[in-house]
Amino acid sequence: MIFCVEDDSGIRDLMIYALNSAGFNARGFADGSEFFDALKNKMPRLIMLDIMLPGDDGITILKKLRSNPSTAEIPVIMASAKGTEYDKVVGLDLGADDYLAKPFGMMEMVSRVKAVLRRTAKTDSETSLCIGQIQLNTAEHTVSAGGRRIALTLKEYELLRLFMDNPGRVFTRDQLLGKVWNSDYIGETRTIDVHIGTLRTKLGDFGDYIETVRGVGYRMEKRT
User: Fold this and answer.
1) N or C of the chain: less Cβ packing under 10 Å?
2) How far apart are CA 44 and CA 28, in angstroms?
3) What predicted TM-score, i.e. pTM, was given to this entire model?
4) CATH number belonging to domain 2-120
């Protein structure tokens, strides 16, 4: 999924159409408020971010993204009608992965998106997720805790990977149902509690890495 934050509806619709035509899934947002609301439910592969926006501008949004561990590594391509060297330098210095000066062609935009995704793709050495004494190998679909191999069901594995991919982020039960059981799943949120309970049991001494956030849901904090 690619998120496009652009207040001009005509440009935004054209960007989404071009990206969808190129084989990507894309969603558009008119301002930072809509964008951050969407981030609560879905993490995109890449963000197209205009600098001139109502409310928080693109530079402010970029700072927020880079300061949050759960969004710090999402690739960002900045866009601005100004086209000044100052805007470009500020954006790149703050961690933007590329910059497009308006007006830009849709073919150029798609090409830049593909190039950034290739450049920022995880390498084989990054297939191992680690939080404290828990390690998860995404290539082999294996999990170990304290050096001991743990046998998990598919849903338990997907729950754990979601937590380890987003350390510190709180997920509601409904969000976990949507992400692990897919958005069309209709079931009781009690399903989540049961799976969290069995996952904690299998992790043994490290089961408390998965924390209950009273009245909200669950999270896994970073640990050394």
Assistant:
1) C
2) 12
3) 0.56
4) 3.40.50.2300
Residues 208 and 200: their CA atoms lie apart, in Å, by: 7
pLDDT per position as a tens digit, 173-204? 888 888 887 644 455 677 889 999 999 999 99
In CATH, what class is 125-220?
Answer: mainly alpha
Q: Residue 64: pLDDT above 80?
A: yes
Q: In angstroms, rounded to a whole number, what is the distance separating the alpha carbons of residues 111 and 101? A: 14
45 pLDDT above the threshold of 80: yes
Q: Residue 210 — φ and ψ, nearest 5°?
A: -90, 110
Would you kindly state where each structural domain of the chain is located, as residue ranges? 2-120, 125-220
Q: 58-67 and 32-39 helices cross at what angle (nearest 10)?
A: 20
**In whole angstroms, how large is the CA radius of gyration of the chain?**
19
Q: How many CA atoms lie within 13 A of 34 on its CB side?
A: 13
Instruction: Give the DSSP per-residue string, the chain.
Output: -EEEE-S-HHHHHHHHHHHHHTT--EEEESSHHHHHHHHTT---SEEEEESS-SSS-HHHHHHHHHHSTTTTTS-EEEEESS--HHHHHHHHHTT-SEEEESS--HHHHHHHHHHHHHHHPPPGGG-EEEETTEEEETTTTEEEETTEEE---HHHHHHHHHHHHSTT--EEHHHHHHHHS-TT----THHHHHHHHHHHHHHGGGGGGEEEETTTEEEE----
Tell me how many degrees the CA angle 138-144-148 measures, rounded to the nearest 5: 155
Residue 220 confidence (pLDDT): 93
